[in-house]
Amino acid sequence: MLRFGIIGAGRIAHVHARSISQHPAATLIAITDPVAEAAKNLAEQYNADIATNADELFANPDIDAIIVCSPTPLHIEHIVGATRAGKAVLCEKPIAMESSALTPLDEGLEGYDARVMMGFNRRFDPNFARAYELVDKGEIGEVEQLTIISRDPAAPPKEYIAVSGGIFKDMTIHDFDMARFFLGDIKEVTAIGQNLDPELASTGDFDAAIIVLKNAAGKVATIINNRHCATGYDQRLEVSGPKGSIFADNVRETTVRLSREHFSDSLDPYLDFFLERYEAAYYRELDTFIRAVEETGDYTPSIADGIAALTIAEAAAESAKTGATVSL
Amino acid sequence: MLRFGIIGAGRIAHVHARSISQHPAATLIAITDPVAEAAKNLAEQYNADIATNADELFANPDIDAIIVCSPTPLHIEHIVGATRAGKAVLCEKPIAMESSALTPLDEGLEGYDARVMMGFNRRFDPNFARAYELVDKGEIGEVEQLTIISRDPAAPPKEYIAVSGGIFKDMTIHDFDMARFFLGDIKEVTAIGQNLDPELASTGDFDAAIIVLKNAAGKVATIINNRHCATGYDQRLEVSGPKGSIFADNVRETTVRLSREHFSDSLDPYLDFFLERYEAAYYRELDTFIRAVEETGDYTPSIADGIAALTIAEAAAESAKTGATVSL
Amino acid sequence: MLRFGIIGAGRIAHVHARSISQHPAATLIAITDPVAEAAKNLAEQYNADIATNADELFANPDIDAIIVCSPTPLHIEHIVGATRAGKAVLCEKPIAMESSALTPLDEGLEGYDARVMMGFNRRFDPNFARAYELVDKGEIGEVEQLTIISRDPAAPPKEYIAVSGGIFKDMTIHDFDMARFFLGDIKEVTAIGQNLDPELASTGDFDAAIIVLKNAAGKVATIINNRHCATGYDQRLEVSGPKGSIFADNVRETTVRLSREHFSDSLDPYLDFFLERYEAAYYRELDTFIRAVEETGDYTPSIADGIAALTIAEAAAESAKTGATVSL
Amino acid sequence: MLRFGIIGAGRIAHVHARSISQHPAATLIAITDPVAEAAKNLAEQYNADIATNADELFANPDIDAIIVCSPTPLHIEHIVGATRAGKAVLCEKPIAMESSALTPLDEGLEGYDARVMMGFNRRFDPNFARAYELVDKGEIGEVEQLTIISRDPAAPPKEYIAVSGGIFKDMTIHDFDMARFFLGDIKEVTAIGQNLDPELASTGDFDAAIIVLKNAAGKVATIINNRHCATGYDQRLEVSGPKGSIFADNVRETTVRLSREHFSDSLDPYLDFFLERYEAAYYRELDTFIRAVEETGDYTPSIADGIAALTIAEAAAESAKTGATVSL
After folding, report:
1. Is C73 touching A (CB cutoff 8 A)?
2. Which of B250, B261, B266 is the closest to A263 by Cβ?
3. A100 confidence band (pLDDT: 50, 70, 90)
4. Chosen from B266, B268, B271 to mutate, greatest number of chain A CBs within 10 A
5. Shortest CA gap B231–chain A (Å)
6. Å from C234 to nearest chain D CA?
7. Could you tell me the sign of the dihedral formed by the alpha carbons of B59, B62, B67, B69, in that order?
8. Spatial distance between the Cα atoms of C282 and D199, rounded to a whole number of angstroms
9. In whole angstroms, how far apart are CA B48 and each of B12, B60, B92, B327?
10. What is the C-alpha separation between A112 and A99, in angstroms, rounded?
11. D23: helix, strand or coil
């Protein structure tokens, strides 16, 4: 039984608390959040203790592992603190707001046995994982072109966007990790930003983008992002190689098709939003983390994966600004 | 080059005239129809001569083959007449209104080399033909259960239904032939009729039906018929065996899918009606007939196939009336 | 919190125990099974007490509701016993082996407030339930034709089939209930049995069947059953009315499609078997039962529904034997 | 009846000759090709005269319209010659090898009534045309993102690639026109080239590419090209706007799906190659051209469209080389 503490009591903390409650080998001991009301809600719902702060969680001998759901600027501090206290860590993405802020991470972990996994949950989505598995089995030969379509059902509030770090770090970061999952290290980044919704123009951020990544072997991933999609949370990928292609389609609530006078075989809209779409992925992520701690010792996606995705995000922002491909 | 005469100038005659005009090895010489206006229209459109009557076509030495599109009660007379004149014959379904009316056929053809193919065009539909081909290759093992869904977009006029011979001879006859295509000779027929549209009740005919056919080996075909279907001409089949299943789906005008707020991947309605849906089938039927005359000598579906389908239709009518399975 | 006792510790008892463990308003108190080893396994896995027999469960004041997973011949005894003890009951299908055995049910429940729901779980399948919801909203008008395809991935052992009561009571009973769900009371039953697998011939039972049901308004349901299906557990239905059609397709593990040289868009096989396919249905069934007890008082599907399905099964057996439609 | 002459007797000339033979308002008078054998084959197959050279076609008073299927470097000469002779022109893409070679076109046409349509056949594909029609009807709102997947089944011979003008002018030129069809004039071009097949490396050309185009309103088109695709000729597009998305999928020979033990619903491979896939498009293109000549006077896609696509192709080549976005 792995005993968990959670830092943060927001939306994503609820997702992890639910996964823990459903996992036979996991139990939630305590949580902490500076917003007392949020902490109370989460603690009551999952029958957990409330800790005054993260340090109290780190000091708790009844806790084996920490899930970091704090605001991004605190991620490194919490990874380091938990590791130094001997806890395993599952940290939400991105690892930091800037790659220039990573120095304390190296320094903080030096000499310690870091058991840290990054929360790139989409690697654990049953659909994307199956696509990867088929690639891995050689069904299509070596990947030549990967296309990721990733559109949110609706943009978050302007206030959120303003502090989000920008679309590439906030939204595309998941797709950058997915590109690395299939293609490995990325050598060149080209990004084209769009401003589609006039309402969002004042945020100073793009609300849509096309990003092309190339690895050392010349294989590419094309990412198509949009902050909105009328039919729901549009999360697909396709990957092709010399021997075939694989498509991972959207997930729908049912298999029901409706045909009427002017159309046929109309399907349910896509599952909406990431809580529904990636519910299984979060659970499988937690399960993989628990097995890493208890059996395998394989904390993938790793800190290095988190840093790599952040670096790509920064390169994409630069490319979208300058109109030139950025080499890594 | 095979030179054709057509008896009849109705809707189905137009279909065959078009196929002939498109086929590089076929040419239309002359047509005949007691309705002068209809004959004139067809002849002008396809640049053909008008014959006074069927006998004039039979006597024409420039004609090699006759397509019989006359009313069903005249089919036997025209098959016999054309055969005795040395012409090959492609005859529309059904072969006759009653199996009791078949005696003149045997007598008429006795001593002649009958080269007669029945116009069960659906055997030549690229989709159903592919399904058959996959069965024939052993992809699913021996057929165990066949399901045919066959619904018209809308019922014909009541006046037509009244003289049609009933749903089983008029509509299901195609499905009976398709069942025989996949299962061979049928030994038992069970039919359940429905009266769905109150408008059609006065015709004294069913406007929908379920028919179950069983062959000597105990394999079954289930036919689901309806005189109307909101989404168009619903023409599908599925066939299963110990090793797998095959589905032949409806045909649509395009592959385009539309997704909006409340639905996703809505497709075009089904092609409407048999002229569109089975256009390729009619062409391939003609092509098969031409090759039968010029090369293969294989006039399948044969007169025997036409009679077998008619016999099943009569058994279905009896079963629907008595509520008992009819053995053949 | 509804407190449960379960009679029986077999496969289906495990399904219900899992649903209870996942439901926030349910708790499992105790179970009983004459096979000590089975009882012990289930009790340990879900941390429940073991009762000596069903009477001990009925007498337990800490139990509010009983789930009857005992062999079919004991269902009536257990429904009556639980009801007389004031417990609500969720009973597995079928309600009895013979409709002639129902007398003790009426007598046993007379004067008691029977709160009994039958476990026709498929009504709660998200796909079939959505199809029903669309029908109920009038999307296709009044149902005219329903087609249910229901094939198991592989036949059960011959020993099981021999005591199963026959395919209609054992397998089709679910489809009979589904037909009644969409069409209401059934007036005519026509069944055609098949013996496809020579291995199973010695059981004296059909291993495949086509059944056509008609309600008082002349609408029909066609059920296509087979004890085996190469691609998995084939569970579909389609329903059509004057305004459209609805299809509930099979469920697959992922949305991934694979395309290679000779084919495109190949999907995962169907989910296999009922534990996976109907996992959500069992959970929603339990949830509906809990709400019936605590809020709605609506125990649907009811005892009457259970009896109706059994009666249809007996009529189907008779029709398959005599080759004649049976009126109810 | 529009009377045609064709310059060139290669593969694409055969496509046009076939369309003419099937079109009720078109007739082929004469063709010309410096390769006598090729000219003879085409002329015999379609019962046309052979002209010594293009000028002879231009001088023929029995010819109303010229289809230019000559090598690209001769396109301008033939457009000018035919126009000066008073013929309408349907010219294959691209309009020229280099935009720097366009001067003779302007000079040559000055003072003449140019009735010239460019052969961007994909605008007339029933699937892409339907997608456009739905956009035009406002089904998805204003286009925000267009994605074109365009992969050939197999690369042409190295010798052809070497003189093809490069992938952007030879292959992507169709996709550039399709992007303009949906987005109008393009302002920015970003291209990333790939070398996937080592066999083709010596050609000095890319064998795959990702190209992102942006119009003045900031809407983008992403084109994904590859010289090979294992499953066939992969020709799809999807287009999304604020109110929905539209997908135009590949075309397959039949609708048949095969399910076996390890997979379900496997479809036919994509139609292979452009002769099959775009057969209907070529016919509809011809039909549009004939109506332009005889009724509408609307020669779209126009010479300006041909030049625009060529200009984008040159910008893409430059961007792929420099790694910088090129503004037009």
Report:
1. no
2. B266
3. very high
4. B266
5. 5
6. 11
7. negative
8. 57
9. 16, 13, 20, 47
10. 21
11. coil
The conformational region for residue A34 under phi > 0 = left, psi -120 to 50 = alpha, else beta, is: alpha
**ipTM above 0.85 for this complex:** yes
CB-CB under 8 Å, D270 with C264: yes
B255 contact residues in A (CB cutoff 8 A):
none
Minimum CA–CA partner of B258 in chain A: A266
Mean pLDDT of B263-277: 94
Q: For the segment C70-103, what is each residue's pLDDT rounded down to a tens digit?
A: 999 999 999 999 999 999 999 999 999 999 999 9
Q: What 3-state DSSP class applies to D60?
A: coil
- Name the minimum distance, in Å, from the CA of B241 to any CA of chain A: 24
Structure tokens given for B154: 């809308």
Interchain contact D265–C (C-beta under 8 A)? yes
SS (H, E, C) chain B: CEEEEEECCCHHHHHHHHHHHHCCCEEEEEEECCCHHHHHHHHHHCCCEECCCHHHHHHCCCCCEEEECCCHHHHHHHHHHHHHCCCEEEECCCCCCCHHHCHHHHHHHCCCCCCEEECCHHHHCHHHHHHHHHHHCCCCCCCCEEEEEEECCCCCCHHHHHCCCCHHHHCHHHHHHHHHHHHCCEEEEEEEEECCCHHHHHHCCCCEEEEEEEECCCCEEEEEEECCCCCCCEEEEEEEECCEEEEECCCECCCEEEEECCEEEEECCECCCHHHHCHHHHHHHHHHHHHHHHHHCCCCCCHHHHHHHHHHHHHHHHHHHHCECEEC
A148: nearest CA partner in chain D: D147
Instruction: Provide the token pair at A58.
Output: 């780190």
Is residue A220 within 8 Å of residue A146, measured between CB atoms?
yes
Q: Is the dihedral of CA A17, A18, A21, A24 positive or negative?
A: negative
Question: What are the chain B neighbours of C147 within 8 Å (beta carbons)?
Answer: 147, 149, 224
Total beta-carbon pairs less than 8 A apart between chain C and chain D: 56
pLDDT at D162 over 90: no
CB contact under 8 A, D244 and B255: no
- Between D131, D243, D255, which is nearest B260 by CB? D243
Q: Is D56 on the interface with C (CB under 8 A)?
A: no
Q: How far apart are CA C209 and CA C195, in angstroms?
A: 9
Q: What is the pLDDT of residue B162?
A: 87
Contact yes or no for B26/B4 (Cβ under 8 A): yes
On whether the CB atoms of residues D74 and D47 are closer than 8 A, the answer is no
| pTM of the complete model | 0.96
| Cross-strand pairs, A91 | A68, A118
Contact D269 C252 (CB under 8 A): no
Separation of alpha carbons B116 and B261, rounded Å: 55
**In Å, how far are B68, B272, D20 from B276, measured between CA atoms?**
21, 6, 22
User: Does D250 sit within 8 Å of C269, measured CB to CB?
Assistant: no
* CB-CB neighbors (< 8 A) of B218 in chain C: 194-196
**The pLDDT of residue B201 is above 90:** no
What pLDDT shows up at residue A302?
Answer: 97
Q: Amino acid identity, residue B138?
A: G
Chain C: residue nearest D252 by CA?
C264
Look up residue B183 and give its amino acid: L
**What kind and span of H or E run contains D129?**
helix D126-136
User: What residues contact C161, with CB distance under 8 A and at least 6 apart?
Assistant: C155, C170, C200, C203, C205
User: Is C214 in CB contact (< 8 Å) with chain B?
Assistant: yes
Nearest 5°: the CA angle A85, A88, A90 is 125
A231 touches chain B (CB under 8 A): yes
Q: What per-residue string of b and e applies to A232-259 under the rule 16 or more CB within 10 Å gives b?
A: bbbbbbbbbbeebbbbbbbbbbbbbbbb
Residue from A214, A168, A121 nearest A309 by CA:
A168
